[in-house]
Amino acid sequence: MAAYQTVTTPRTTPTDLAGLLLALRTAVAPDVGIQVLDLQTYTLKKNTPWTPAEIAQAQTAIDTAPVRDDAALDVDQKVLKALVLGLWECIPNPTLTKAQLRARILAIWRTL
Amino acid sequence: MALVRVVDVDDDGTGTTGTIHNNAWLQLLNDSIDTALAASAPATSAPTTTGTVTAEPIPAGTGDLVTYHTNATLKTIQGMVAGLPGQRWTHVSKGAGQVDFAHLHASGTALGKCKLFATTGLTSLAAGSGVAVFQYDATVTQWRLVSHEQGAWITPTFAAGNYTANAGTWTLAAGDVVWNAYRLTGRTLEWAFRLATTSVSNAGVVLSAALPGGFTAAGAVYQQTRSSDNGAAVVAGFANIPAAATAAQFTSTLVGVGYAISTNTTEIAGRISVEVQ
User: Fold this and answer.
1) Which residues have a Cβ under 8 Å from the Cβ of B16 and sit 6 or more positions away?
2) Does one domain contain both A107 and A84?
3) Tens digits of per-residue pLDDT, B97-107?
4) Measured between beta carbons, which residues in chain A are less than 8 angstroms from residue B160?
5) What pTM value is reported for the model?
6) B8: exposed, middle or buried (C-beta count within 10 Å: 0-12, 13-18, 19+)?
7) How far apart are CA B215 and CA B210, in angstroms?
8) C-alpha A4: how far from chain center
9) Among A76, B27, B57, B205, which residue's CB has the most CB atoms within a 10 Å radius?
10) Gap from A3 CA to chain B (nearest CA, Å)
11) Distance in Å, alpha carbon of B197 to nearest chain A alpha carbon
């Protein structure tokens, strides 16, 4: 049975949704889903009733989630990631790890 | 309605022949005009009937007709009592319940079926704000819709069966429908929706949602959506409504990639404009 819980947050910055989802699934339950209604209102869903402790954990997760990084969103588009990782695999002895490569691309992206 | 004609011979001045044009004569003329005006004044009714109606009762009158529907819950009109040739009948939703009209419904009275712009689905008056005007066509004994304003957008009742996948299941609970509303204008259906925290059981699937209001599309439509596949970043998705379809088909990207398996993390939102039959 689906159970919904609306959480309002005082923060006025958009959250990194992928990170928030991971945090909620770790802290609350592995089936949590997110509906962002507006900048400060989130409706959360899971398939079991919400306990007060879970609501508090969700509140903390939303209040403290990292701010959405628009550059990261651009760089992490599936097609771009696939291209970059495909190219990386073509390099015989890469001097950067995949994570370092992503960080470097992100840095370049921000200068564009 | 014509005035009552009486022979009028002008008095010759003696006061003994013809019609004396005095106050009594003037009042007689005025009464005749009053009677004619009263007969052509709009006749009104305010039924509270709910449920299915196969022969909507007609207000008594030979002029224009106005019915203020004050139904508290849904009322579906499949037919209306016959009118006079060319007579106009305005239907105003004034109650808390929606008013629906069905096109040439088999159960509607043979002398007054409703001929609507859209021949599929139901043409609705949103509760308390919709208006429709019909004119009686005595040749075919039908009430023809000549003007329709739905009023507010209408949110259909949630039905989990309206959401399917081409393999496995697309599971929605009522709370996953953040919004879902439509407005019919002529044969154009405007549909706005946001379906979030939904679940998909199989990988690479095309998801389908029934068109609201029970309509069938006329021609094919392609439209962009806002799509998040299994919690991934929001991208442009794709909606396809084939000709004669009763549902929209969704893929997770503009190039037609299917949706991944998910638990409460698939979201689709969009606004679709489609011609309906």
Assistant:
1) none
2) yes
3) 999 999 999 99
4) none
5) 0.83
6) exposed
7) 9
8) 20
9) B205
10) 8
11) 5
